[in-house]
Structure prediction request, 451 residues.
Amino acid sequence: MSQPASFRSTWTNRWAFILVTIGSAVGLGNIWKFPYMAGSQGGSAFVLVYLVCVLLIGLPLLMAEIMIGRRGRGNPVSAMLNVAGETRSSSWWGLVGWVGVVGALLILSFYSVVAGWILDYLFKALTGFRVETAAAAGASFKALLGNPGQMMVWHSLFMILTVGVVARGVIAGIEKANRVMMPALFLILVLLTLWGGVAGDMPAAWHFMFEFKPADLTPGVVLAAVGHAFFSLSLGMGAIMAYGSYLDQDSSIGATSLWVALAGTLVGLLAGLAIFSLTFAQGLEPASGPGLILQTLPLAFSSMPGGQIFAVFFFILILFAAWTSAISLVEPFVAWLTECLGIRRGPAAWGTGLAVWFLGLGVCLSFNNWSAYTLFGLNLFEFLDFLTSRIMMPLSGLAIALFVGWAMGRDPVRDEMRLPDGAFSAWYRVLRYLAPLGILLVFLHVLGGIS
Ligand code: PHE
Prediction:
């Protein structure tokens, strides 16, 4: 698809934008990471703080990112530079765009490997895989981690699926893929939650997630929840900014963001309820870490009537969620290549994919042959996760809050947001004070300052 650099697509309508942005937000973060984080971080305490963070920091930043994207009408780097230029702020702000664009590609390099695990388990489910004991479930997951070749095949397939969509363009590729996958995802999720209610232990799941126990509320839990609010709303990585740049002028940023945050959170909570219902019904431990869904769910499925169908649907659901998020991780850099270097979208997308794929090969090896090679005591997978989620995301979120709250000046922000007065003042104040402070706390924690 060749497009002149000056041409910019816009989503078909506001709902299309809401759909693709939910597609970006809802991903492995909600379905793979959220349950194991909640499971190991005190359950309801984590869930409660996460919800408060989504509302108080996540939602305002989501609005800020969409606003910059739309005002700057360009890929994250150009958008930051354009808005900085318009408001006579320093061109150093362009760096924020770069942190996002590069961070997104780094995330994708391991995200794709984890999505590859999901493909592997989907394949297993299709071929009637069963495990009878927790030990067997653990052993099969370990076997996958010990087999770099197998991981590389699935990682390669997932990268081809992702890049294939981005290469087709914003409307014909990204919007169209989301239009098919997101409604399917919602439908499967509702069915699975209902099934979780029938076959699982829903009251125990509800109790675990929502019955608040103040004693579990430690600083560590609070900070983990802030970080997760960032990851699960795709903040600070240019994805939302890139999508926002294709938003038409008539759509309300406030209402649109509210939809995205609500739907994204709801999906996470429903997935959590479904997963914990099954986990508890099997008498399994919710605090078992990153392997949670890949170890407990196959076990739960194996002992359940109709479990194979359940498993197939569940892994398709996670695959769709991961796919639509991965697409949004590629788009920012591809948009930069097409707009700033004039490269055609097809070659830009495949070239980007190739580079990320290559780094992903290292990630596959970091679980086995290369596990001894570490940086600050972290293998490549852990290092990339740490660098992006704990350093680049909060840094870029902080910079965005400061840019909108302090550098841009009130008038252009107000002009672009078109919010009612009271809502605008509240939002603006959050960006000026609360969000930077909250993010700084996470950051200090990471650097070992507190907790
Ligand atoms: N929000 C996605 C998830 O929950 C991950 C993501 C992060 C996507 C940053 C884009 C940008 O899985």
Remarks:
- Residues 57 and 77 are 23 Å apart (CA to CA).
